[in-house]
């Protein structure tokens, strides 16, 4: 069974089920996560205790997207396990000679306490076959296996004193005496995880410090795999959320060391339902481990196009909080609350690379007029986008809370290059945010290359020089009568309006405004002026556009007609002479208006147009039809 990948990086990393005691291993350059699987206790089982019936395995190659490979071992199918014991506790998995060995503790059918069994597979995700009997001579929980450089395997386990022993070369039995691990501190210990780094052996384990009452993660070092051990200290302090257990694994992946551990994020009031988290871990130069502070953010880089759960922030100003969206269905996750103007939360490592013209969508709940800004780097960083919440609920006073989650969008003003921290700053009002996401605008057009183009298969001209929208407030399209349009279109808005061929990037003055010409190649047969206005941060309604293009004809072509569709009205000139006027309240329909017969000169012809709109969308499509009504295509189109 394979379930969809989780495109999320925050803590906890498994977000649709509980996942405790996370042992992570790297196999074939991919991280495999073998946690135990807490579930709500079925009727008849102790409700306030661990309840685990099976194991899933998950994998990832970026620590942000996890694939659930489904159940690999279940209590009903292990010959020696009591099928109603719900005691499939902390496991481990190692690879030797291409074979995968999954070690797990559970309650045996005969006897008391816990035994440890093995299941084997040819692939890290199984299918696994369980050995018929548990490993002889072992009573206990939390197996951890270390395979030394010489191939010798050792198993460590808890349940009483921490113990360790050699394994036989087939990893299925103990080989030699069981040793108590000497040198560890007093106090409750379990969950050993042993590994080797830079020639040192590390034995790491959950440990209850005197007078503290819940588990830390601690470690000891040795020159020998079975000790004696030299206790070094704490890897992670007691859980800030009061989770009694912690349980972990440590591994390097692509040059960075990571600590996998668990907290009770999705079960704040019952700490036997736990969830896997990951944070970075660092070794100091003497081989000791720097204490790790648990984070909400976790590890990995999020693409800006993913839903960013900013409630799992990296840093925040005072008073900012992350609270569960639903205290019953906790797997719905959290919301971020920025309590007032000036509050902020930042989320590390968001990747904007590969994005082009884009906009931001935020799922928020706030009062009308609450505004916020997204910045790059931190609360004083460059503005990426600014948004305002407009609540339009019928019958409700606009200053009341909408009480509803809503999507707010804003154009991206500054697109960060590559990976940056994203900072959400509240500019006024209490702001609740569930997620943020960046989206690329559909590619309606792209900057035109300087090489000439030809009309498309239907003869539509897609290459145009277009001037940014001129403000021309028209409250309705009804005013677009012939006389109104003739007057408006023949008015001079800027110098050279009817005579010069502008250059890409050239600026013109229109009243007090400075507007720029853009050489565009439309992605479709029609040029979406509305999007162009939006993406050049110009008004989209009540505007006038000027467009011009050069048609190069290899010969003189008589009796051609200019066929135009526009939204709304438009006027067109060929080589300086009026060719066509489309008046009235129009939708863009191809060949909506047809000019009288015209002559296309041999060589360069200038086709100029102006489109006006009121409160609606705006676009146009233009082609030339020959005397048989066929598209004229043996021409080249250019903007210079
Ligand atoms: O998950 C059940 C038990 O809780 C584990 O075996 C211990 O290490 C503790 O995490």
Task: Write structural notes for this entry.
A hairpin with a 5-residue loop joins strand 10 (141-147) and strand 11. The relative contact order is 0.08. With 640 residues, the protein is mainly β. The two termini are 59 Å apart. Strands 32, 33, 34, 35, 36, 38, 40, 41, 44 and 46 form a 10-stranded antiparallel sheet that branches. Strands 21, 22, 25, 27, 28 and 30 form a 6-stranded mixed sheet that branches. The protein binds beta-L-arabinofuranose.
Strands, helices and their partners?
Layout: E1 6-7, E2 20-27, E3 30-36, E4 54-60, E5 65-74, E6 92-96, E7 99-106, E8 115-121, E9 129-130, E10 141-147, E11 153-158, E12 163-166, E13 179-180, E14 193-197, E15 200-208, E16 215-222, E17 230-236, E18 249-253, E19 256-263, E20 275-281, E21 302-303, E22 315-316, E23 321-324, E24 334-338, E25 344-351, E26 358-366, E27 371-376, E28 383-388, E29 406-411, E30 419-428, E31 431-440, E32 445-447, E33 463-467, E34 470-471, H1 482-490, E35 507-510, E36 513-522, E37 527-528, H2 529-535, E38 543-553, E39 557-567, E40 569-574, E41 577-582, E42 593-594, E43 598-600, E44 603-613, E45 619-625, E46 636-638
Parallel strand pairs: 21-25
Antiparallel strand pairs: 1-5, 2-3, 3-4, 4-5, 6-7, 7-8, 8-9, 10-11, 11-12, 12-13, 14-15, 15-16, 16-17, 18-19, 19-20, 22-25, 23-24, 24-31, 25-30, 26-29, 26-31, 27-28, 27-30, 32-36, 33-36, 33-38, 34-38, 35-36, 37-45, 38-44, 38-46, 39-42, 39-43, 39-45, 40-41, 40-44
